[in-house]
Amino acid sequence: MYKRVIQFLAVLALIYLIPTAYLNYTEQVEHWDWDEIDLNDISFPENFIWGVSSAAHQVEGYHTSNNWADWENQVDENRNPRIARGEKCGIACDHWNRYPEDIKLMQDLGVKSYRFSVSWSKIMPEPGVVNHAVMSHYIAMCDSLLAAGIEPMITLHHFCHPMWFEEMGAFEKEENIEHFLRFASEVFIALGSRVNYWCTLNEPAVFVIAAYFDGHFPPGKQDPELAAEVLKNMYLAHVKVYERIKSMEGGDRVHVGIVKNMHQIDPMNDWNLFDRLLSRTVNKGFNGSFISTFTKGVYKFRFPTLVDLEAEIPNAPYSLDFVGLNYYSHNAMDFSLNLDEALKTRMYPDETPTDMDYTMYPEGFYRAIKEISVLNQPIIITENGVADADDDIRGEFIKKYLYAVSKAIKDGYDVRGYHYWSLMDNFEWDLGYDERFGLYEVDFETQKRTLREGSKEYQRIVKAN
Ligand code: FCB
Fold first, then answer.
1. DSSP assignment string, 325-373
2. Residue whose CA is closest, atom 10 of ligand 1?
3. How much distance in Å is there from the Cα of 139 to the middle of ligand 1?
4. Ligand 1: does its nearest atom lie under 6 Å from the Cβ of 116?
5. This prediction's pTM
6. Residue ranges of the chain with pLDDT lower than 70?
7. Is residue 210 part of a domain?
8. Rounded mean pLDDT of the chain?
């Protein structure tokens, strides 16, 4: 009997405990001892780019013919509105009209770069047709920024595209990339001489998971195979836009990159081998597919029983002048035999929560920089910020996350700039107006902007460095 028990324990140790202990030793979810850290021990290189970030649909207002304007008028299968509390984007921050005032807010912060997106649906109300008045608006905006000593950084696709593009299947079809190329070329013709930094696509993996995997972004599909295909087409679209811009006059002078959110998916319980396997698989799909596309030119998206797609995008590793990194947090996987439950991402109970389902996890920022550095490209932080309506933790967030960036730079990682998300409160997609990411609080009744107390940490660090 004893012998049986010992044999059983030995087998258990071999197939479960030893591998788990090994993984716990080699692959720990990193945590730092903040009591031992001096948060003032930060420094940034001389030409470090300090900035703020936004996106057209979230701040401009007056979007009537893009995928999101359509989505906010729909209901789901239970007749619930698509946007929290049935909110509509409406005039948002009226940034379309108030950008001169908003540029002054940037100057007060001391930042020298503004990352924003241009609205494809406003610029091209119909396929191939340019609205020149709208283009002139963006030209004037870039000129005002430059006159204020702030460099514009443009994103061409930030979760939004015209409804006509959505109706033809958007990035579901490879042949539709042609329309995005046409749009990118028109914008580059108009703004190329004013803008040095170009982001082709914002967070394609976030967009695709939300729009085609779990369906809370338009077009609300839940189709893993289609999701894998759309993500592949978006990476392909990036490569094509890169090559197109480079072939145009002035293209060799500008920097073109893609923006990746390196949100990590970690195991909830280090001693649960199934949590580990699941988190690895999801992490590979979400982050690994990007890394392998842009290092090896091989796109792989796999999830057992759901999807298995591999495709070559051979020019991808040669299609970057920099990589834009967005970072907020990590989430945990808690294994379950029920697939829906298993695929839910969860917060770590012992980390400080924010208003969104993200915890404060500055260590992950360091990890993200390290993970994306395998691309061997200059890294520009294109987004980082916190939803904190009560402004309780914003100051601490800024200090800790910037400590992580400074440490990464000291350790040799090539980080060239940082953009805080966001300049001001705005429309947070399906979550509506309650998520308050702004350095400036916006009163949406009066459009008054007020600098939050916690944001003064950012202003202080920018001015000191
Ligand atoms: C990022 C998006 C940005 C904003 C922040 C909070 O994933 O790029 O538009 O919603 O999250």
1. EE---EEEE---SSHHHHT-EE--TTS-B-SSS-B--HHHHHHHHHHHG
2. 428
3. 25
4. no
5. 0.97
6. none
7. yes
8. 97
